[in-house]
Amino acid sequence: MAESRHRSWAEPYKIKMVEPLKVTTREYREQAIKEAGYNTFLLRSEDVYIDLLTDSGTNAMSDYQWAGLMLGDEAYAGSKNFYHLESAVKKYYGYPYLVPTHQGRGAEHILSKILIKPGDFIPGNMYFTTTRLHQELAGGTFVDVIIDEAHDPTSLNPFKGNVDLGKLEDLIKKVGASKIPYISVAATVNMAGGQPISMENVRQLREITKKHGIKIVLDATRALENAFFIQRREPGYASKTLPEILREMCAYSDATTVSAKKDLLVNIGGFLATFDRDLFEEFRNLVVVYEGLHTYGGLAGRDMEAMARGLEEAVQEDHMRARIGQVEYVGEKMITAGIPIVVPVGGHAVFLDAKRFFPNIPQIEFTAQTLAAEIYIDSGVRAMERGIVSAGRDPKTGDHYHPKLELVRLTFPRRVYTQAHCDVMVESVQSVFENRGSVRGLKLVYEPKYLRFFQARFERV
Ligand code: F0G
Hints:
This protein is an alpha/beta fold.
């Protein structure tokens, strides 16, 4: 709909069922976050007013998807929902071979075990928490090869997710191509602020990796959102459809790992998919060890049906325009209010720049963790830390990683919140910003071994 581009991003759906929210007092929330060790992951969801912890599995499904749940074929083997999903993945992503998994990290686990040997290096356009951990558990070392601008929250580069080809070539020279089984390419890049990678960059990556016999594994978890940015920003793509752009991007890769809990508008699910018959044989053999038979991979038949139907809806232009439009709406309001955020605004979230928000709280006092707690106390809006806590420790030295980006992510569940909710988010962040001088940082009092951000506990310094 060409003319609709001049109109508001208004939602292409209406609300048929509602879920009441509990409204709490400031005193209640102060107690709740203290009991949760100042970690928003440890709050009870019923104590949250607007939940922006993640866009993962928090989507509202459509009546068409809910109807599909009733058509679950719960056979152990060969469920018809698997074949429906397989044909939808082939149609929209292009991969002929599909292996479902219970969620994204299930796919990462299997892929890492198959492709990585101890001592290997895996370059990537910035790390993602679970992706890097599975690479490390398989004996690999992650190497960040994203462009420098990705680490600068103020850089307006339209494709901050791009790989720095020079950094990749340096790594190949240094360790040798035989020690690099694949490059891990995320579209969009979550930890950089939901920033897209350009088609041009992926095309160049394919040329370089082909020369060296290195595979490309795409993390296509939010690749449809990435396709939308390519359509809007990259020369030559304005008249292409989202599935056309998606298929072109996937065609440059060898395989993909996907968390379906994002783009695919469901509450659970993931998959591995590939063009490579031999790799597929390995995927479908190992999946039976960790997830389930290769035609269900840890999912119920009905979940696969909801994924197939969600994919059909997710590729609709009107859907994506409203999805990204809502995130942009909040981002623009934050900028107007003078709040420091990562620009350009990303696909799935608005990221607050905690270092500029609280210049008086050093990173070692967990600046972003503190900010997420303060926002919750102010309004019951739940956000997530994406800074030093999420970055974890170097497995070799045991020291904290000190990421340049110390961010709080306000992540948007798809099709869940209204524009008035959006206004509350901005008002709340604004009120914390106005009172920022009086806030104290945090100290770590409990730290689990893996993915510490999920369960770590803090106290006020
Ligand atoms: N890759 C990316 C880019 C992700 O954002 C995630 C999850 C995963 C892989 C892992 O998928 O959760 O289904 O096992 N991201 C969530 C988030 C958790 O909040 O950003 P999963």
